[in-house]
Design a protein that fits this description.
Elements lengths: L2 H9 L2 E4 L7 H11 L4 E4 L5 E9 L2 E15 L1 H7 L4 E9 L1 E5 L2 E5 L4 E5 L4 E15 L1 H5 L12 E2 L1 H17 L5 H19 L6 H23 L5 H8 L3 H8 L5 H18 L7 H7 L5 H12 L3 H10 L4 H12 L2
Antiparallel strand pairs: 1-3, 2-4, 3-4, 4-9, 5-8, 5-9, 6-7, 6-9, 8-10
GO molecular function: DNA-binding transcription factor activity; sequence-specific DNA binding
InterPro entries: AraC_XylS_family_regulators, Homeodomain-like_sf, HTH_AraC
Protein name: Helix-turn-helix domain-containing protein
């Protein structure tokens, strides 16, 4: 992608509405395909309708969603398949949003914000709701909260959410007035306000020190893994100057460092397969992404995506005529 294309993607809003698709099951199928990058959409009893608008704030994405009769499910298999590592803050403006995580379930009402760790399983359900969803890179959360994993499924009450909620509602209405430079400043302001709202979730004392050390270890490890896709857990530990036991403990809450390494390799491979100008052989791409062999790569890719890499490349080429789906997928992929 050129610099001009990347800038344009950050400035342009994206829209999807079932009002613009065939009614009934056809509308749901279009939305299911649109959202397939992130979660499995499922119909609930009663009428179904969805409208989504997305806007970029530098590294953040703000979604305005009107949801009726729909659930979104991220199963453990889906979590492994996606390789997402960001957070979402879901502000309910109207109606109610049911949020289920392994830690329990909550119903989130108007003015409250649900926090979702996208590296972990979850399910949301909306009979009828309007939700502003802010997608935030993990690094922005870790800058404020030393153990972000504790936030998964947490709900910020109205008194802690009010300032951020008002700011997000204003962004939704006025963001189109601002250019790239201003949007970077607005992104920083948004992250600061989110950090302020999350301040009450920070641990204290010795726990805070230990969690801060683990978060710093994960940040360094992720940077090393992205720069050295063929690295083993042992190489990562040596590369960032920690023992293997320290590295393993740091990644234990998210399924282990080996799982993370494989997920990042799959993310890189999937991105290469989707590029229209990438014509290298699958074997060459597999080695480039850190796999030891084409067969190991194909097994991992098929387990994660249900199709072989070659088939995924073919399907990606066939789907390039679906601009809304591809644009949303591109934005979500930027958050990995």
């Amino acid at each position: 992608m050129s610099d001009d294309e990347a800038t344009a993607r950050r400035e342009t809003g994206l829209r999807f509405s079932t009002d613009a698709t065939p009614s009934g099951q056809g509308g749901f199928e279009a939305y299911h395909d649109l959202y397939a990058t992130v979660a499995d959409a499922a119909r609930l009893d009663g009428a179904f309708a969805v409208a989504v608008t997305a806007q970029r704030l530098d590294t953040l994405i703000l979604f305005d969603r009107r949801l009726q009769g729909v659930a979104h499910v991220r199963s453990p298999r889906r979590v492994i398949r996606n390789g997402f590592d960001h957070f979402t803050a879901q502000l309910v403006l109207d109606g109610a949003l049911a949020v289920d995580t392994p830690e329990g379930g909550r119903t989130v009402g108007p003015g409250e914000i649900a926090l979702i760790d996208m590296s972990r399983p979850m399910e949301t359900r909306a009979g009828r709701a309007r939700v502003l969803t802010l997608s935030v890179p993990r690094a922005a959360i870790e800058a404020t909260v030393t153990e972000p994993g504790r936030l998964h499924g947490a709900v910020l009450p109205q008194d802690r959410s009010r300032l951020l909620a008002r700011f997000l509602a204003s962004l939704r209405d006025d963001l189109h007035l601002y250019g790239p430079g201003d949007r970077q400043r607005l992104a920083r302001a948004t992250a600061d306000l989110l950090g302020l709202a999350l301040a009450g979730h920070a641990p204290e004392g010795a726990d805070a020190v230990q969690m801060a050390a683990a978060a710093a270890c994960r940040r360094r490890a992720r940077q090393y893994i992205d720069a050295h896709p063929a690295a083993t857990p042992e190489a990562v530990a040596a590369g960032i100057g920690v023992s293997r036991s320290v590295l393993y403990r740091a990644f234990a809450p998210s399924g282990g460092v080996a799982r993370y390494i494989r997920a990042r390799r799959l993310v890189r491979l999937r991105a290469l397969l989707a590029q229209p100008d990438e014509t290298a052989r699958i074997a060459d791409l597999a080695y480039r992404c850190g796999f030891t062999s084409e067969s190991d790569c194909s097994r991992a890719f098929r387990a994660a995506h249900g199709v072989a890499p070659r088939e995924y490349r073919r399907l990606s080429r066939e789907e390039r005529d679906a601009p809304a789906r591809q644009s949303f997928a591109g934005w979500w992929n930027d958050l990995r």
